[in-house]
Amino acid sequence: MTGELHNQKGKASTLDNLIEGFQLIGFDWRYLYVNDSVVKHSKFKKEELLGYTMMEKYPGIEKTPLFDLLKICMKERCAEFFENEFTYQDNSKGWFELRIQPVPEGLFILSIDITERKKAQEKKLEYIQGLEEMLFMTSHQVRQPVTQMLGMTSLIDRKECTQEDLLQISIYMKSSLNSLNQFTKELTQFLHELQDRANT
Protein backbone atom coordinates (compact mmCIF):
# COMPACT_ATOMS: atom_id res chain seq x y z
CA MET A 1 0.00 0.00 0.00
CA THR A 2 2.81 2.37 0.92
CA GLY A 3 4.57 1.47 -2.35
CA GLU A 4 1.44 2.21 -4.41
CA LEU A 5 1.01 5.56 -2.69
CA HIS A 6 4.65 6.41 -3.38
CA ASN A 7 4.20 5.47 -7.06
CA GLN A 8 1.10 7.62 -7.38
CA LYS A 9 2.88 10.59 -5.84
CA GLY A 10 5.80 10.00 -8.16
CA LYS A 11 3.54 9.99 -11.23
CA ALA A 12 1.78 13.17 -10.07
CA SER A 13 5.14 14.84 -9.50
CA THR A 14 6.26 13.87 -13.01
CA LEU A 15 3.06 15.25 -14.58
CA ASP A 16 3.34 18.45 -12.53
CA ASN A 17 6.71 19.28 -14.06
CA LEU A 18 5.89 18.65 -17.74
CA ILE A 19 5.59 21.61 -20.14
CA GLU A 20 2.35 20.15 -21.52
CA GLY A 21 -0.82 20.83 -19.60
CA PHE A 22 -2.58 17.85 -18.01
CA GLN A 23 -6.04 18.19 -16.48
CA LEU A 24 -8.62 15.72 -15.28
CA ILE A 25 -12.26 16.80 -15.50
CA GLY A 26 -14.98 14.92 -13.63
CA PHE A 27 -18.42 14.01 -14.98
CA ASP A 28 -19.80 17.02 -13.10
CA TRP A 29 -17.24 19.23 -14.97
CA ARG A 30 -15.15 19.82 -11.85
CA TYR A 31 -11.37 20.00 -11.97
CA LEU A 32 -10.05 16.85 -10.29
CA TYR A 33 -6.39 17.35 -11.19
CA VAL A 34 -4.34 20.07 -12.92
CA ASN A 35 -0.58 20.13 -13.35
CA ASP A 36 1.63 23.23 -13.10
CA SER A 37 1.40 24.00 -16.83
CA VAL A 38 -2.41 24.12 -16.70
CA VAL A 39 -2.16 26.46 -13.72
CA LYS A 40 0.21 28.69 -15.69
CA HIS A 41 -2.02 28.62 -18.80
CA SER A 42 -5.18 29.29 -16.79
CA LYS A 43 -3.77 32.28 -14.85
CA PHE A 44 -5.43 30.86 -11.72
CA LYS A 45 -3.83 29.31 -8.66
CA LYS A 46 -4.14 25.54 -8.32
CA GLU A 47 -6.44 25.84 -5.30
CA GLU A 48 -8.66 28.21 -7.32
CA LEU A 49 -9.27 25.44 -9.86
CA LEU A 50 -9.44 22.15 -8.00
CA GLY A 51 -12.98 21.28 -6.93
CA TYR A 52 -14.54 24.01 -9.06
CA THR A 53 -16.46 23.46 -12.30
CA MET A 54 -15.26 24.77 -15.65
CA MET A 55 -18.39 26.95 -15.80
CA GLU A 56 -17.59 28.52 -12.42
CA LYS A 57 -14.06 29.45 -13.48
CA TYR A 58 -14.88 30.41 -17.07
CA PRO A 59 -18.43 31.81 -17.24
CA GLY A 60 -19.91 31.32 -20.70
CA ILE A 61 -17.64 28.42 -21.65
CA GLU A 62 -20.73 26.19 -21.94
CA LYS A 63 -21.75 28.22 -25.03
CA THR A 64 -18.48 27.62 -26.91
CA PRO A 65 -17.64 25.06 -29.64
CA LEU A 66 -15.00 23.65 -27.29
CA PHE A 67 -17.55 22.80 -24.63
CA ASP A 68 -19.86 21.28 -27.26
CA LEU A 69 -16.98 18.97 -28.19
CA LEU A 70 -16.23 18.18 -24.53
CA LYS A 71 -19.88 17.20 -24.00
CA ILE A 72 -19.71 14.81 -26.97
CA CYS A 73 -16.50 13.25 -25.64
CA MET A 74 -18.00 12.93 -22.17
CA LYS A 75 -21.25 11.38 -23.38
CA GLU A 76 -19.99 9.16 -26.20
CA ARG A 77 -16.64 8.32 -24.50
CA CYS A 78 -14.66 9.23 -27.60
CA ALA A 79 -11.29 10.93 -28.12
CA GLU A 80 -10.95 14.21 -30.03
CA PHE A 81 -8.38 16.79 -31.13
CA PHE A 82 -9.13 20.52 -31.07
CA GLU A 83 -7.33 23.85 -31.57
CA ASN A 84 -8.82 26.49 -29.32
CA GLU A 85 -8.37 30.25 -29.17
CA PHE A 86 -8.93 31.22 -25.56
CA THR A 87 -9.78 34.72 -24.32
CA TYR A 88 -8.82 35.41 -20.69
CA GLN A 89 -10.66 37.69 -18.28
CA ASP A 90 -8.09 40.45 -18.97
CA ASN A 91 -8.96 40.13 -22.72
CA SER A 92 -5.55 38.67 -23.58
CA LYS A 93 -5.66 35.63 -25.85
CA GLY A 94 -3.88 32.32 -26.16
CA TRP A 95 -4.01 29.40 -28.58
CA PHE A 96 -3.97 25.82 -27.32
CA GLU A 97 -3.81 22.43 -28.99
CA LEU A 98 -6.09 20.11 -27.02
CA ARG A 99 -6.19 16.31 -27.03
CA ILE A 100 -9.24 14.99 -25.21
CA GLN A 101 -9.40 11.42 -23.94
CA PRO A 102 -12.17 9.72 -21.95
CA VAL A 103 -11.02 8.09 -18.69
CA PRO A 104 -12.97 6.37 -15.87
CA GLU A 105 -13.02 9.62 -13.85
CA GLY A 106 -14.39 11.71 -16.75
CA LEU A 107 -12.11 13.40 -19.30
CA PHE A 108 -8.36 13.71 -19.49
CA ILE A 109 -7.17 16.75 -21.48
CA LEU A 110 -3.64 17.31 -22.77
CA SER A 111 -3.03 20.95 -23.71
CA ILE A 112 -0.06 22.46 -25.55
CA ASP A 113 0.41 26.22 -25.77
CA ILE A 114 0.76 27.08 -29.48
CA THR A 115 0.25 30.84 -29.08
CA GLU A 116 3.71 31.76 -30.43
CA ARG A 117 3.26 29.45 -33.42
CA LYS A 118 -0.12 31.05 -34.19
CA LYS A 119 1.34 34.54 -33.87
CA ALA A 120 4.13 33.59 -36.28
CA GLN A 121 1.57 32.21 -38.74
CA GLU A 122 -0.50 35.40 -38.46
CA LYS A 123 2.59 37.55 -39.07
CA LYS A 124 3.51 35.45 -42.10
CA LEU A 125 -0.02 35.78 -43.48
CA GLU A 126 0.01 39.53 -42.82
CA TYR A 127 3.37 39.83 -44.60
CA ILE A 128 2.07 37.90 -47.63
CA GLN A 129 -1.04 40.08 -47.73
CA GLY A 130 1.20 43.14 -47.56
CA LEU A 131 3.24 41.88 -50.53
CA GLU A 132 0.04 41.26 -52.48
CA GLU A 133 -1.09 44.80 -51.66
CA MET A 134 2.29 46.10 -52.83
CA LEU A 135 1.99 44.24 -56.15
CA PHE A 136 -1.52 45.64 -56.62
CA MET A 137 -0.27 49.17 -55.91
CA THR A 138 2.64 48.70 -58.30
CA SER A 139 0.54 47.38 -61.16
CA HIS A 140 -1.89 50.29 -60.91
CA GLN A 141 0.31 53.23 -59.96
CA VAL A 142 3.21 52.39 -62.29
CA ARG A 143 1.14 51.44 -65.31
CA GLN A 144 -0.46 54.85 -65.86
CA PRO A 145 2.72 57.02 -65.96
CA VAL A 146 4.58 54.38 -67.99
CA THR A 147 1.72 54.19 -70.49
CA GLN A 148 1.70 58.00 -70.70
CA MET A 149 5.44 58.14 -71.37
CA LEU A 150 5.22 55.43 -74.02
CA GLY A 151 2.44 57.39 -75.72
CA MET A 152 4.48 60.58 -75.63
CA THR A 153 7.59 58.90 -77.06
CA SER A 154 5.50 57.74 -80.02
CA LEU A 155 4.49 61.39 -80.57
CA ILE A 156 8.16 62.42 -80.61
CA ASP A 157 8.79 59.98 -83.45
CA ARG A 158 6.40 61.89 -85.68
CA LYS A 159 8.13 64.24 -88.13
CA GLU A 160 5.43 66.89 -87.87
CA CYS A 161 6.22 67.58 -84.17
CA THR A 162 6.81 71.28 -83.59
CA GLN A 163 9.03 72.87 -80.99
CA GLU A 164 5.88 73.75 -79.03
CA ASP A 165 4.72 70.11 -79.20
CA LEU A 166 8.08 68.93 -77.89
CA LEU A 167 7.90 71.42 -75.04
CA GLN A 168 4.42 70.19 -74.07
CA ILE A 169 5.56 66.55 -74.31
CA SER A 170 8.51 67.38 -72.06
CA ILE A 171 6.15 68.85 -69.47
CA TYR A 172 3.99 65.71 -69.54
CA MET A 173 7.07 63.48 -69.32
CA LYS A 174 8.29 65.34 -66.24
CA SER A 175 4.87 65.00 -64.65
CA SER A 176 4.88 61.24 -65.27
CA LEU A 177 8.43 60.90 -63.94
CA ASN A 178 7.49 62.86 -60.82
CA SER A 179 4.54 60.49 -60.29
CA LEU A 180 6.90 57.50 -60.57
CA ASN A 181 9.40 59.11 -58.23
CA GLN A 182 6.70 59.82 -55.63
CA PHE A 183 5.41 56.27 -55.91
CA THR A 184 8.89 54.76 -55.39
CA LYS A 185 9.19 56.83 -52.18
CA GLU A 186 5.78 55.60 -50.99
CA LEU A 187 6.70 52.03 -51.95
CA THR A 188 9.97 52.21 -50.00
CA GLN A 189 8.11 53.54 -46.93
CA PHE A 190 5.49 50.80 -47.29
CA LEU A 191 8.18 48.09 -47.44
CA HIS A 192 9.90 49.48 -44.33
CA GLU A 193 6.59 49.45 -42.43
CA LEU A 194 5.84 45.92 -43.64
CA GLN A 195 9.23 44.67 -42.46
CA ASP A 196 8.84 46.45 -39.10
CA ARG A 197 5.47 44.73 -38.54
CA ALA A 198 6.99 41.37 -39.47
CA ASN A 199 9.84 41.84 -36.98
CA THR A 200 7.72 42.91 -33.99
Q: What distinguishing features does this structure have?
A:
single chain, 200 residues, alpha+beta, Beta-Lactamase, 2 domains, five-stranded antiparallel sheet, 5 strands, disordered N terminus
Give the topology, please.
Blueprint: H1 2-16, E1 21-26, E2 31-34, H2 36-42, H3 46-49, H4 54-57, H5 65-76, E3 80-87, E4 93-103, E5 106-113, H6 115-141, H7 143-156, H8 163-199
Antiparallel strand pairs: 1-2, 1-5, 3-4, 4-5
Helix pairs in contact: 6-8, 7-8
Task: Write a brief caption for the model.
By secondary structure, the protein is α+β, with helices and mostly antiparallel strands. It is built from eight helices and five strands. Helices cover 60% and strands 18% of the residues.
Q: Would you give an account of this structure?
A:
It is a single chain. With 200 residues, this protein is an alpha+beta fold. It has 2 domains: 2-113, 2-Layer Sandwich (Beta-Lactamase); 118-199. The protein contains 8 helices and 5 strands; from the N terminus they run αββααααβββααα. It has helices at residues 2-16, 36-42, 46-49, 54-57, 65-76, 115-141, 143-156, 163-199; strands at residues 21-26, 31-34, 80-87, 93-103, 106-113. Strands 2-1-5-4-3 form a 5-stranded antiparallel sheet. Strand 1 (21-26) and strand 2 form a beta hairpin. The longest helix is centred in the last third of the chain and has 37 residues, at 163-199. The two termini are 55 Å apart. Mean pLDDT is 80; it is low at 1-11.
